[in-house]
Amino acid sequence: MGELPLEGHTPRSRIRAVATEVRDRLSANASLIVLAVIAATLAWTIAGGLVQDHRPFFAPIAAVIALNASGGERGAQALRLLMGVFIGILAGELSLLVTDLNEVAMVLATACAMTVAAAINAERIIIGQAAASAILTTIFVGGASPGIDRLVDALIGAGVALAFSQLFFPARLVALLRRIEEDALNEMASMLALVGRSLEDGETSSEQVVNRLGDLSRPMAELSRARESSKSTIRLSTIRWGDPQPVLEEDEVIERLILLGESCLFLARTTTAMGVEEQRELAPIVTDMADVLTILADDLSSREARERAVERALTAARAYGTGAPEDDPVTHATHLAVEMVAADIMVFAGIRFEEIEDVLQGDLEDPTVPHPPGEPWLPWLSWRPRWRPRWRVRARLPWRRPGDR
């Protein structure tokens, strides 16, 4: 008899996996789709009532384009859109003064608009909008001024987008950052789980590890970009009117998560130089660490999940031990890597940095894991709910590694 296909490789399981991915994508973008549809309808209605005798086709387009960005970038997206429209309309009107031939005017206007946008080091969306505005300004020449009509449409569309993204439905930046953290934790867990299975089967090679490290590069890059863009988002959004402290605190969490990712990379790298017996001994430890990261990723706002993660990380690290003085450098590095992963997990969970060494050595049996701070409801208000109990107030934690000076 032939072997049955492994679970996870059957057509049904593949279809189920694809359906799950599609559902997750739709769930992640459902709010944006609904918001864009409402904004487009409202922009069309307002522009049609304010500007007579023209079809305000660009007002809903401007609203959708301005909203088609990550939550923290929608305000900046609307401003970029307006800049491109201004450049394109100006280039189109000047070209119509030079020649009456629409085709020639379109060529001149498009070239001029894109050249000006590129000369001021504008982003690609501005260059594209400048070209589109120049083309429409020179082609749709009628009784009314096409440039002015398009400018009014753009102002209305961008205004609706700004009202939606900054006042009525502001971006919950902390929630966005936590989704990025969740993706990074899941990628780390997936990488360690694969390494653990390879160690158990004795199939670990440098090439395999390099491929797995490459899979982790995208979420790590996302973490770095999120940390860099969060401060600019505060400046360019209504969050600056309220309390930016939750966002700044989440930036610190991202920095600790980046350190955790580096520890996981170090652990995965050291496994390739170990012997077969040592690899099989390490396999359950690596698998346990992967399970710990999955527990954290499942609910970043849960104190109980963080407590379970800390307990399992400690159990795994203590089971592997600190090694012996006579160990070879590779074995010593592996023990250090396991301790680093456990320590960074505990710091990420909220344990005070100065307690980490005592916890690892068993001198502190019951470390305190504080409750993660809640997400602000309305980012543009300085008010935050005060009903949280005392244990939900998180202490600010340093995130240096042991041995840093």
Write the layout of secondary structure elements.
Blueprint: H1 11-50, H2 58-67, H3 74-98, H4 102-119, H5 124-139, H6 146-168, H7 173-201, H8 206-236, H9 245-270, H10 276-298, H11 303-320, H12 329-349, H13 356-361
Description:
Pfam families: FUSC_2. The longest helix has 40 residues. This protein is elongated. The N terminus and C terminus are likely disordered. Helix content is 71%, strand content 0%. The protein is an all-alpha fold and 405 residues long.
| CATH topology value of the largest domain | Methane Monooxygenase Hydroxylase, Chain G, domain 1
Number of strands: 0
- Counting helices, strands and paired strands, the structural category is mainly alpha
Low-confidence stretches: 1-8, 383-405
Roughly what is the average pLDDT, rounded to an integer? Answer: 78
- What is the correct CATH architecture of the largest domain? Up-down Bundle
SS summary, helix count: 13
Radius of gyration: 27 Å
